[in-house]
């Protein structure tokens, strides 16, 4: 029997001020495979341990099939956990390791039939009578999985089970885990920092940062419609191109996105997504382009929705099945503060007011803080552009029609057969259907979010 798992505003606090998990809410259907994805230290393993009962919940509720189980002991939750470090008993044979939880649960039953069936399922019949020290890393992980499978639990909890293995073995076991969990139909929560595992295994992917849930979607939707800059940059290889930009929306002309030295004219009539950009006129924005959203082609070869730009070739990366071309288009890459960190930088602490400070001094201090503050501060765990004035437009010098070489701002995926000389100016076509626009707080503006802030009054 498989079970539904629900976490409602779950918070885990260590000490007074350290919040490892902050108001985490997620519903997992029976038999669903959900992956918790995020950088190391973001709180995903803490969530898994709270589900297992190995960590107490500071605030919120954990429900199994609609029944609250916050205070239920781990052994009574009918869950099996697979750890990163295998956690096998070194003085027991692999057969004994697999049968150990069966003997603990029902000592009167013979565990051998179930152990043999599990071993056949995992292809480890010939190593049952060996010891863990005599096995390779992949074989040890199979034995650890066998110990979990033999119990026939209602839920599998897997905490980065493949991270200690080499790439080839990791890919092989990933396929086995996918096959096994679908054959058994058991609810599975899988923790990893590897996006390839998350995208290939999960029915849904839950991305975390700083203990906060950023987005929960199907793998395809996480890649195609990221909720914010952090998700967009964390998912996808190579990393999404982020460029500083402004919206140019004249009343009597064509609307465009200004990339400093070049512009992306928006097709008319404007799509609903592009119409929303009009209110961003004059504001700082960040444009996101996946490497496959740009192709090498002349303006005459443009398809509907594609607009031309050009770029200078900086260098090429040959990947075997493809090539990555680094271009300089004269744009400025967006510098995002603490993008790869597991949690955002803490907000600066307010300076204590000196004793006896009067009303006038407090007013002057407040006014000075407002005058010197960033007009668009970062919002909680969401990243922001880290530049005091990143969108100051530079006027090209007279006769300077091409950007200077030395800095690439755009990576384009192309065929491995393409041969380009560094320094060559190449025509490019940008597919505006795959254009992302984020505000300076990292929230996605285009494609339009499903819920528009401030419009529900």
From TrEMBL:
<keyword id="KW-0547">Nucleotide-binding</keyword>
<protein>
    <submittedName>
        <fullName>ABC transporter ATP-binding protein</fullName>
    </submittedName>
</protein>
<dbReference type="InterPro" id="IPR013611">
    <property type="entry name" value="Transp-assoc_OB_typ2"/>
</dbReference>
<dbReference type="InterPro" id="IPR017871">
    <property type="entry name" value="ABC_transporter-like_CS"/>
</dbReference>
<dbReference type="Pfam" id="PF00005">
    <property type="entry name" value="ABC_tran"/>
</dbReference>
<dbReference type="GO" id="GO:0140359">
    <property type="term" value="F:ABC-type transporter activity"/>
</dbReference>
<dbReference type="InterPro" id="IPR003593">
    <property type="entry name" value="AAA+_ATPase"/>
</dbReference>
<keyword id="KW-0813">Transport</keyword>
<dbReference type="InterPro" id="IPR047641">
    <property type="entry name" value="ABC_transpr_MalK/UgpC-like"/>
</dbReference>
<dbReference type="GO" id="GO:0055052">
    <property type="term" value="C:ATP-binding cassette (ABC) transporter complex, substrate-binding subunit-containing"/>
</dbReference>
<dbReference type="Pfam" id="PF08402">
    <property type="entry name" value="TOBE_2"/>
</dbReference>
<dbReference type="InterPro" id="IPR008995">
    <property type="entry name" value="Mo/tungstate-bd_C_term_dom"/>
</dbReference>
<dbReference type="GO" id="GO:0008643">
    <property type="term" value="P:carbohydrate transport"/>
</dbReference>
<dbReference type="InterPro" id="IPR015855">
    <property type="entry name" value="ABC_transpr_MalK-like"/>
</dbReference>
<feature type="region of interest" description="Disordered">
    <location>
        <begin position="389"/>
        <end position="409"/>
    </location>
</feature>
<feature type="region of interest" description="Disordered">
    <location>
        <begin position="339"/>
        <end position="359"/>
    </location>
</feature>
<dbReference type="GO" id="GO:0005524">
    <property type="term" value="F:ATP binding"/>
</dbReference>
<dbReference type="InterPro" id="IPR027417">
    <property type="entry name" value="P-loop_NTPase"/>
</dbReference>
<feature type="domain" description="ABC transporter">
    <location>
        <begin position="5"/>
        <end position="235"/>
    </location>
</feature>
<keyword id="KW-0067">ATP-binding</keyword>
<dbReference type="InterPro" id="IPR003439">
    <property type="entry name" value="ABC_transporter-like_ATP-bd"/>
</dbReference>
<dbReference type="GO" id="GO:0016887">
    <property type="term" value="F:ATP hydrolysis activity"/>
</dbReference>
């Amino acid at each position: 029997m498989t079970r539904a798992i629900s976490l409602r505003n779950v918070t885990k606090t260590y000490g007074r001020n350290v919040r490892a998990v902050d108001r985490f809410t997620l519903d997992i259907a029976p038999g669903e495979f959900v992956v918790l994805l995020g950088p190391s230290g973001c709180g995903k393993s803490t969530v898994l341990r709270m589900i297992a009962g190995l960590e107490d919940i500071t605030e919120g509720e954990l429900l199994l099939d609609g029944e609250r189980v916050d205070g239920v002991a781990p052994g009574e939750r009918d869950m099996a956990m697979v750890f990163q470090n295998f956690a096998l008993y070194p003085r027991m044979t692999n057969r004994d390791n697999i049968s150990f939880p069966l003997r603990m649960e029902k000592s009167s039953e013979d565990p051998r039939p179930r152990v043999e069936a599990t071993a056949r399922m995992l292809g480890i019949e010939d190593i049952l009578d060996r010891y863990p020290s005599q096995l390779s890393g992949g074989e040890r992980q199979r034995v650890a999985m066998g110990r979990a499978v033999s119990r026939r639990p209602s839920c599998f909890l897997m905490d980065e089970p493949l991270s200690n293995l080499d790439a080839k073995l990791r890919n092989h076991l990933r396929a086995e885990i996918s096959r096994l969990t679908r054959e058994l139909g058991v609810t599975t929560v899988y923790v990893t920092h590897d996006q390839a595992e998350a995208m290939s295994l999960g029915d849904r992917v839950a991305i975390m940062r700083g203990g906060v849930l950023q987005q929960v979607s199907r793998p395809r939707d996480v890649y195609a419609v990221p909720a914010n800059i952090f998700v967009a940059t964390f998912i996808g290889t190579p990393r999404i191109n982020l460029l500083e930009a402004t919206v140019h929306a004249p009343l009597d002309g064509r609307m465009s996105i200004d990339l400093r030295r070049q512009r992306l004219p928006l097709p008319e009539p404007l799509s609903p997504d592009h119409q929303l950009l009009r209110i961003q006129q004059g504001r700082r924005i960040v444009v996101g382009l996946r490497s496959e959203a740009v192709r090498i082609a002349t303006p005459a070869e443009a398809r509907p929705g594609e607009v031309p730009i050009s770029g200078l070739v900086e260098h090429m990366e040959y990947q075997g099945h493809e090539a990555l071309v680094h271009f300089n288009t004269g744009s400025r890459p967006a510098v995002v503060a603490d993008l790869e960190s597991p949690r955002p930088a803490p907000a600066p602490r307010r300076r204590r007011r000196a004793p006896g400070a009067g009303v006038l001094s407090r007013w002057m201090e407040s006014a000075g803080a407002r005058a010197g503050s960033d007009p668009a501060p970062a919002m909680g765990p969401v990243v922001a552009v880290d530049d005091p004035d990143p969108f100051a437009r530079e006027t090209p010098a007279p006769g300077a029609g091409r950007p200077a070489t030395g800095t690439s701002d755009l990576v384009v995926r192309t065929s491995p057969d393409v041969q380009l000389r560094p320094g060559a100016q190449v025509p490019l076509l940008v597919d505006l259907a795959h254009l992302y626009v984020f505000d300076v707080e990292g929230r996605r503006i285009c494609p339009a979010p499903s819920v528009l802030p401030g419009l529900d009054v």
